[in-house]
Amino acid sequence: MNKILFLLPALVFQGLAGQDENAIGSQPKISQGLEGYVYRISGNQMPSPNAKPHPLKGISTGLYIYVLTGLDQVERVNQSAFYSHIHSKYIGMVMTDSNGFFRIALPSGKYSLFVKKDSLFYANLFDQHNHINPAEVFPGKISRIEFRMDFDASY
After folding, report:
1. DSSP-based three-state secondary structure for 36
2. What is the DSSP letter of 95?
3. Could you tell me which residues come within 8 angstroms of residue 62 by beta carbon, excluding any fewer than 6 positions away?
4. Which of 73, 67, 74, 116 has its CA nearest to residue 92?
5. Domain 30-154 - what CATH class?
């Protein structure tokens, strides 16, 4: 009886550890596409000699994928990084987990990535041709992406 009571907490812990492992591995296995993290950054991000940088914090959100999209294919809100409408082909949306991690299988090609704040799309990176937040998927490869939602950050 004492042996059973001694082993019971260990078995419960092992069972819970297995559940956590399954939750982390809940994203599908892929051989081609995109994977990475979406981070939420806010507040004062100015460097200071006496302050350590804050670690990035992942966020659970939707990541919207469109074919490669230029500034001439969106309705931009003033001169901001917010867009009310995107007029290029919508590919799909993937939800990130609680750590901000996502993984999605995609055909090889070039894409633009957005997140949403309320009803507006957001992306603040551009390439030299004014394509918005570009990402490229190569045949047989997984491209790694880091998306920063920093619309409330000060630099």
Report:
1. strand
2. E
3. 93, 94, 95, 96, 115, 116
4. 67
5. mainly beta
pLDDT at 16: 34
- DSSP 8-state class, residue 131: B
Backbone CA torsion sign across 116, 121, 123, 124: negative
The contacts of residue 43 (CB under 8 Å, 6+ apart) are 152, 153, 154
The ranges assigned to domains in the chain are 30-154
pLDDT digits (tens, 9 = 90+) for 71-115: 999 999 998 889 999 999 999 999 999 999 999 999 999 999 999
Instruction: Evaluate whether 59 touches 151 at the Cβ level (below 8 Å).
Output: no
What phi and psi values does residue 86 have, to the nearest 5 degrees? -120, 125
Q: Hey, is 61 helix, strand or coil?
A: coil
